[in-house]
């Protein structure tokens, strides 16, 4: 049996070497070595043989691991080697075990760092909401590997939310644990096989999108300023451009060109259905929309935002200049419907997109152009190969639509012959 080396290091020597700052590698016997790098990093290394091959493992940094503790840890590793085990393999398994021991709360933070930044802004807001309000409070303290389908079902049931909110909650949970499975923190996704209809019953019928008729548009546009000029201008612009309300509410004046060939560029990160190349979307602006935006610019009083926040609390929360909350528009619509407005069905901001799509088709605008106006992705093979922007055709279509809206607001007759083949 090989004779063991005597212990030769002392705490005094270790402190001296650290203070000197010179690189050293000093053995304490039996493979335990104190190392000090040129960068000043001191550590304990155990050098050993396993299966006829040399190996080494870092036991810890000095002075976090002192001389006595390093000797104790080295002795424990030597016992493993004597029993035929490889310390390096054991260390890798220990690291793997530490990863799989993540709590759901830790998993959520990792998901926010690794996954959410690549998502569209609206998706990030939705996921963060469900992570903060439902998943974190309910599952946060649990180890991710211990979460079972029953825990997720209980979370959905206890939340007592309607079908749409519950569906988004379950989707966020599914994506979170898919991330965990991808990192091998868990072996299978506990959301697999969960059906919301089995928890909450059949999904309620979806609300059908509606198209405001010409008669409704005439009544709406002559009454819309009763909820305030700024809200009235906002509704007109949404109706005339077909953009999503979130895109308008977060718009900045730096994105808007009111000069020749007027246009508004919506940044890629603000677009709900982003293209694979993350391209921005250019919205051509008709003469009437330019006039409305110029009026909003005067009302903005120097703000960077097209629709700046007015409430001191919201600006304080944002740390200064910011945009209005999107629910401002919903509140304005509710006030409009609470007024003596008759002959106009209750609609949502998204119904304005349905309205423009339907009327453009009735005016003879090509289907693909009307889809591009709304920044929809074309379906099937067309969506794969047709990458055209069709800015000129979209400008013509929106100018025609804007003239129609102007006629509705002013009470003028509209008897323009529908266009055919505008995309030709």
From TrEMBL:
It comes from the Bacteria. Belongs to the 'phage' integrase family. This is Integrase family protein. Residues 207-398 form the Tyr recombinase domain. InterPro entries: DNA_brk_join_enz (IPR011010), Integrase-like_cat_sf (IPR013762), Integrase_catalytic (IPR002104), Integrase_DNA-bd_sf (IPR038488), Integrase_DNA_bind_dom (IPR025166), Integrase_recombinase_N (IPR010998), Phage_Integrase (IPR050808). The lineage of its organism: Bacteria, Pseudomonadati, Pseudomonadota, Betaproteobacteria, Burkholderiales. GO terms for biological process: DNA integration; DNA recombination. It comes from Paraburkholderia ribeironis. The keyword Transmembrane helix does not apply. GO terms for molecular function: DNA binding. Coiled coil: none annotated.
């Amino acid at each position: 049996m090989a004779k063991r080396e005597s212990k030769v290091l002392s705490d005094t020597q270790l402190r001296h070497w650290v203070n000197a700052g010179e690189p050293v590698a000093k053995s304490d016997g039996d493979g335990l070595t104190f190392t000090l790098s040129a960068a000043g990093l001191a550590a304990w290394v155990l050098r050993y043989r396993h299966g006829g091959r040399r190996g080494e493992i870092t036991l810890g940094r000095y002075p976090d691991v002192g001389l006595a503790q390093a000797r104790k840890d080295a002795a424990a590793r030597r016992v493993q080697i004597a029993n035929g085990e490889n310390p390096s393999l054991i260390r890798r398994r220990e690291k793997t075990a530490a990863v799989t021991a993540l709590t759901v709360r830790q998993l959520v933070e990792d998901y926010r760092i690794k996954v959410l930044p690549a998502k569209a802004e609206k998706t990030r807001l939705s996921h963060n909401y469900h992570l903060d309000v439902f998943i974190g409070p309910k599952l946060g303290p649990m180890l991710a590997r211990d979460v079972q389908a029953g825990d997720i079902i209980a979370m959905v049931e206890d939340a007592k939310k309607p079908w749409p909110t519950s569906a988004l909650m379950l989707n966020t949970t599914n994506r979170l644990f898919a991330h965990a499975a991808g990192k091998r923190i868990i072996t299978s996704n506990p959301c697999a096989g969960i059906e919301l209809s089995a928890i909450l019953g059949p999904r309620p019928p979806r609300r059908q999108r509606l198209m405001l008729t010409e008669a409704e548009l005439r009544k709406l546009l002559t009454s819309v300023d009763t909820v305030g000029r700024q809200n009235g201008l906002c509704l007109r612009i949404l109706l005339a451009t077909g953009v999503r309300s979130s895109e308008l509410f977060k718009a900045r004046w730096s994105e808007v060109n009111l000069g020749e060939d007027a246009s508004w560029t919506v940044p890629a990160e603000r677009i709900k259905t982003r293209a694979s190349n993350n391209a921005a979307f250019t919205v051509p602006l008709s003469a009437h929309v330019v006039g409305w935006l110029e009026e909003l610019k005067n009302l903005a009083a120097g703000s960077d935002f097209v629709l700046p926040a007015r409430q001191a609390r919201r600006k304080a929360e944002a740390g200064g200049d910011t945009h209005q909350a999107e629910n401002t528009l919903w509140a304005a619509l509710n006030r409009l419907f609470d007024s003596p407005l008759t002959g106009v069905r209750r609609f949502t901001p998204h119904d304005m997109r349905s309205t423009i799509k339907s009327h453009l088709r009735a005016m003879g605008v090509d289907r693909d152009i009307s889809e591009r106006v709304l920044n929809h992705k074309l379906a099937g093979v067309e969506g794969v190969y047709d990458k055209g922007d069709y800015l000129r055709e979209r400008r013509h279509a929106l100018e025609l639509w804007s003239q129609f809206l102007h006629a509705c607001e002013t009470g003028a007759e509209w008897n323009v012959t529908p266009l055919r083949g505008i995309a030709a």
